[in-house]
Design brief:
This protein is of the alpha+beta class and about 280 residues long. It has seven helices and nine strands.
Length: about 280
Amino acid sequence: MKKFFRTILSLMLTVAIAVSTSGCMVITAIKKEDHKNRILSMLKEKYGEEFEVLSIKRETSSGFSGGLIPGRPSYDAVCCPVADKEVIFNASTMENDTTMSDDYPQAVIEKKAKDIAEEIVSEYTDDFIVYTYVSAPSKTVSTDDSTWEKVKNATPYTSAEEITIENYVDKYFETSDLVLEIVICTEVSEKFAQHQKMLDELNLRLKKLKVLAQVYYCEEDTMKRCEKHIEENKHNPRIYIDDILSNNSLCYIYYRRQETDYKWVFNESSSVTSYE
């Protein structure tokens, strides 16, 4: 008899847990949908266009980190404008908050820089990948107070049309970087001289963006792995291919800064397994 009651009690407890868990899942799904709609509404109000949420997740921080308040959930969404689904960016808001942060302007500049780079690189080779990343404006030890004051007081963008490379540089002068990764499937000895000309042409088109350019030369299997990784993560605002390339390519790194009159300065090259 005791065994019978223990079995019944166990079944009741299992059902209670299942109902409770199911209820939590429903509440979480409703909250996610609510915050998704709220983010879409705030994006439309801010930039005057329609957006789409590709994914949204709820996070709770146990300590002060990345702007999160301990124990207060945030909702982080991966979004894109309906008019251009290749512009993928993050937008986030905290629970019971009326404000939102997003990196839409950086994503727009990434796309513009990528289009320019692909147009130029395609003149020199057919087998390549271009990846771009623009950092949010930030103050470093080398940023003087007057420059940072200008950044803080910059007028926010209100439409995609306002977000041009020239305008972005003017607003966030020397506080935001463009990382430009160019992956070329070829033997470096065959194309290196031509690619110096390619970089010179890029220099003329990128205006006054601070740029770190990494030119990788790799073999076909490495290129295919990069392409597969990019395809699998196409809805991710940050696609890192460095790990794939680091041990299977020859990399030349160039910097482009105001103090060099925005000319490419060769920084380093690292020879690894593929061409040894």
